[in-house]
Structures are given as structure tokens and as C-alpha cells.
Amino acid sequence: MRRPAGTGRDTGVAVAVTGTDDVTEVTDLGPLRGSVAGFTGDGVLTTDATVTSADDGISAVVAVLPADAGLSAADLDGATVTAVLTDEDGADPTTYATTASVTSDGELTSVSADLSGAGWVVDEPSLVHLAVSVPQVLAPTGAAGVVLAEATASPEGTDPVDPTDPTSPTDPVDPTDPTDPVDPTDPVDPTVPTDPKGPTVPTGTTDGLDAVAVSAGIAYSRPMPWTGEQTNNLTFCHSFTVTNTTGAALEDWTVTFDTDLAPMWGLNPTAGTVSLSNIATRSFDASTGLWVVGGSNEWAKRIEAGGSRTVQFCATSVPTPAANPDLFDVAVRVVAHNDWYVTFEVTVTSASQYYVPWKEEVDLAQLVCGTSLTNHPLSFQLVTATPVAGSGTSYVIEGTRGNTQLVSVNHPRTFTFASYSPGAGWQLPCGG
């Protein structure tokens, strides 16, 4: 691991927090020590992060905060950031201090730390630890005063050849040998593409994380089932592997994605909506949604014969698509606790592996006697309910942002969305 001379040192991070009674408590990065009356919030929030690299080393690290973190963009913008570079075991630390810059789409907040001034160039897999400190008031349910994140940094130099790798050549290529199977000048060599820049185009993709096209000599693969699990929001991280299928080294490669498809839903990757790790945008056509990426540094670009590179991007601000009835199913039912407390329950399911929003028109008169809804006000919760014009019993309901808005195959939702107090005579059939 190469670092600027004289910058390696052990680091401890302490946090001073002040309670509403002006009593100051000093903590380490962990649960608060001691007891402060009335404080039931978190002292530390942990979250995920990604590293962005350039030719001259690590340029930035980005942490994404969930909607319920309780920290606003105003709280975090300009906050003190301590970044620590270590090896994979967390040893040999080097510290760099900077300030945070923040972007927010109203649901998620991305905290970025500019590390270009740290001069961090790694020649082995390493870890970047991030601590963002904001003033904390020890009030009940107070938001965390420290955000902790960790990300993996990949080497930026040329990937060394492993002498035990069976795919590595054991002798130099003889350019004058017409029968040498890895001679790129051999016109009969079946393993060398005749057009190294020409893309191959898979057909029929309906998944935005499947490659629409790849450059010649490259095979694209991704974890299946998908491992970029979403947590009640549309942001996600996606890792994929490109493999050199030829008999010679490739100096560069590209992969094309269709950002109009799920789970990207029309995002513009050139508008600060993605964080890239060892890849860079080569082009983006907003009219078609086609996004071309390739390696961002020499290690990522060059792939030896039979070798591969695993890279990643994180979508930190994804547009919310319109609800598509083909992607979800909605069922509603009435739950009677007694004549004075009747509730309505909704179950929403989806076969989509990615989160999708839902919306449904429901007529409550199909569940209870319509006359019982007159003069007995409904109380809605966890949904936005819009009355259907001309009907006193029908509503268009949809989940609320950051709460019940999204469903997927792994995240169905069942919850009470409305209640009322009708008294006797609410059951169907009316008057029965």
C-alpha cells in the first residue's frame, strides 16, 4: 500500500455531545457511556458507502443515509469528516480530515467526502472507514450524532499476473509463430476478435441490470439472484463482472445498460445520481436511455486473457416510476373488531424482484353497507386516499413515500389503511 510520506498514524475519534440540560458527555464511537436522563436516541448510525476512484487514486467516498435517519441535509452539509484508510484487516491506518458535501432527493441523503487531497493510491484491496460528526442534542429520540460507514477500495495499478493462475501464459508469445494460438496477428486464430471495438448485442432484455451490449471479447455476468437488496427505497448498488473470453489481453472494454428499465426507472447517470467504483461513463443518450460504461483506470480497463474484473455502481437517486397495474396485485378486506370499530386491510404483492410503487381504486361499499359510511367519517392511515369523483364510497389509495409506497417479491405489504365507527347495521347485505 502506497501513501504520502509521514501521513500514517493511529487515530481515535471521540464525540462530545450536549444534553438539553447543557451537560456534556464524551463518548467513543459506540454506544453512549453512562446515563443521560431523557435520551433514548442513537449515538451512532451505521450505513453503507462506496468508493469512487480515478487514475490518480481514491477520489471520494459516498455514504447513503436512509429516510428515517433523522439527519437533514442542512445538518450534514459541511460536517466534519474523518476518513481512515486501512488494509483488509483494519490495520496500518492513515487518516485524512475533510468536510461533507450533501445531496438529497427528499427521501435519501447522500454524504460525499472529497478524498482527492489525501493522495491515497492502493496496490492491494483496502478499506476506507468514514466517520461524519454533527452536533448532537441528547433529547428524547434524538438523531445520531455520528455516521459510520465502510467501503472497499480496489487497486488502481495494473493487476499483477498470478504465477499460479492456470490462465496466465507460461512463456512469451512469439509474434513470428503463425501457429501460436495467442498471437493476435495470426489471421486464423479463432480466439481473437476481428473487430475489437464492435459490440455484441444480447436481445430481449427487460431488466435494466442486464447488459444491452458488450464490447467484443467480453462476457458480462452478475450475481443471481440479485444481491443489491433494496430497503424501502428505490436506491440500490449493483456489482457485475466482465470476463475476457479471448486468448489475448484486452486493453479496454465497455458495457451498455438501458436506464429506462427497472430498477433504474429513467435515471440520468450523468446528473449526480450514481456513485461509480472502478468504472466511468463513456456516453449516455437521454433519448434512448442507453448508458455506456467502461473501466475508469488501468487496473479496471486492462484484462488479461481469461481474466476478469468486478466493478460496481450505486444509484443514489432513482426517479419514482408511475404505478403499473401489471406489476402488482391488491386485495382489500374488512376486519370487524366490533360494531364501533371496523377496519379495512389491504394486501399488496408483486412478482418484481425490484421495488415498484402501487395504486388502486377501492370501493368500500363492496365491503360494507354503503349507507353506513354516511355521517361516519373514515380515518385513513399509511396511505394517500383520493376520493373518486361522483362516488361517495370509492377512493384511489396508494402507499406513502418512505413507508408503504413500494412492494417487491420479497417485500409484500399487509396493513390497516382505514377505520370507522358505524354502529349496528354496517354488514352486507344492507338491512340484512
Number of strands: 28
What's the order of the H and E elements?
A: EEEEHEEEEEEEEEEEEEEHEEEEEEEEEE
By DSSP (H or I, 4+ residues per run), the number of helices equals 2
Mean pLDDT: 78
What gap, in angstroms, lies between the N and C termini? 81 Å
Q: Structural class, from secondary structure content?
A: mainly beta
Major beta sheet, strand line-up: 3-4-7-6-5-8-10
Strand fraction equals 35-45%
Relative helix content = under 10%
Radius of gyration: 28 Å
- Using the alpha-carbon principal axes, give the shape: elongated
Count of discrete domains: 3
What does this structure look like?
This protein starts with 14 loop residues before the first strand and ends in a 12-residue tail after the last strand. It has 2 helices and 28 strands. The longest helix is centred in the N-terminal third of the chain and has 4 residues. It folds into 3 domains: 128 residues, no CATH class; 117 residues, Immunoglobulin-like, CATH 2.60.40; 96 residues, Immunoglobulin-like (Sandwich), CATH 2.60.40. With 432 residues, it is mainly beta. Strand 3 and strand 4 form a beta hairpin. The N terminus is likely disordered. The strands form 7 sheets. Strands 3-4-7-6-5-8-10 form a 7-stranded mixed beta barrel. It has a 5-stranded antiparallel beta sheet with strand order 11-12-15-18-17. Strands 13-14-19-16 form a 4-stranded antiparallel beta sheet, with no helix packed on it.
